[in-house]
Amino acid sequence: MANKVTSYQTLLQVVKSFMNERNEKSLTNLERYLQIAIEGYSQMQLFTMNTINVEYLQVDQNTNSALLPPDFLTMTKIGVNLRGKIWTLTLNNNITIPKPESICDEPIERVTSDTTITGGYLFAPHYRNGAFVDTLYGLGGGFNVAYYRIDMENRVIYFDGRVPNNEVILEYKGTGVKAGGALIPRQAVPALKAYIYWKAIAKDTRLAMGERNLAKMEYYEELHELKQFEWSFTMDEYLDAMYLTMSQGPKR
Predict the structure, then answer these.
(1) Is residue 67 located within the same domain as residue 137?
(2) Are residues 168 and 58 in the same domain?
(3) What per-residue confidence (pLDDT) applies to 118?
(4) pLDDT tens for residues 118-170?
(5) CA dihedral 171, 105, 157, 241 (to 10 degrees)
(6) How far is Cα 147 from Cα 97, in angstroms, rounded to an integer?
(7) pLDDT value at 107 more than 70
(8) Which letter, b or e, does each residue of 192-204 get, where b requires 16 or more Cβ atoms within 10 Å of its Cβ?
(9) pLDDT in tens, 8-59
(10) DSSP letters spanning 12-36
């Protein structure tokens, strides 16, 4: 799966290519098309595409919390680096918002290798400060190493104890659209262009209903092709296959 994508286009390149295909020489509709493209690609990321991100979040010592990434949709795992080992954390929705309570029997700093349980998790390969990180192994949580709670309304994640180095490692699914824009994988471009066209004319009563319905149908046909490409494995099978190609097991 990881080798399927061979090239990317920026969101702007996709929109300009769409306009070129429609022979639109004026840039009047550029901003409108870009907004439609952002909405369309965000939906594809949520429901269709297997895109996993990793972000290193800085924890505010005063509130024991960290801001979620701007493109955050849902989390796959979270961990902390403790003396060179990555420990995954456990969800606890009883943590008080906005002032977390200490509910962990042992502070994060006191956890040792003696509390390790069998099994663990590999974080998705990613870049950090320009360096590629391909094998980040997280020891299993679920046994009172530490807890977290996500406040989606305010887009904040809270913790119950002192976080080592005031940093957590978050793996998540995102919209694919950040402040710097978005890189669109080649296989998603046809569906995104079809979405732009459909939404651009969907409420244009000057056009026949049949033409608008045809645009909608063409989008869903392209989306179906994209789903077949992306979901030839389930999400869990996809992640397992990707992780197995990186390492046969953790090195301790």
Answers:
(1) yes
(2) yes
(3) 39
(4) 345 555 555 566 665 655 544 444 434 568 889 998 999 998 877 888 899 89
(5) 10
(6) 13
(7) no
(8) bbbbbbbbbbeee
(9) 888 999 999 999 999 999 999 999 999 999 999 988 887 888 777 888 999 9
(10) HHHHHHHHHHTT--S-TTHHHHHHH
Q: Could you tell me if 27 and 128 lie in one domain?
A: no
Asked if residues 158 and 94 have their Cβ atoms less than 8 Å apart, the reply is no
**Domain-located, residue 167:** yes
Structure confidence by residue, pLDDT tens digits, 67-84: 999 888 888 888 888 777
Same domain, 46 and 69: no
Name the residue among 87, 69, 67, 85 with its Cα closest to residue 77: 87
32 token code pair: 């409108």
Alpha helices (H) in the chain, listed in sequence order: 11-21, 30-47, 189-201, 209-230, 235-246
- Split into its structural domains, the chain has a count of 2
How many CB atoms sit inside 10 A of residue 6's CB? 8
Q: How far apart are CA 110 and CA 218, in angstroms?
A: 57
Could you tell me if 165 and 131 lie in one domain? yes
200 is written with which tokens?
């651009």
Do 61 and 27 fall within a single domain?
Answer: no
- 40 and 152 share a domain? no
Q: Domain for residue 182, yes or no?
A: yes
Residue-number span of the structural domain to which 87 is assigned: 53-175
Specify if 250 maps to a domain.
no
Both 110 and 149 in a single domain?
A: yes
Q: Where is the domain boundary, 122, 145, 175? A: 175
Give the span between the Cα atoms of 115 and 102, in whole angstroms: 19
249 within domain boundaries:
no
Per-residue model confidence (pLDDT) at position 14: 95
- How many CA atoms, within 13 angstroms, populate the side-chain half-sphere of residue 224? 6
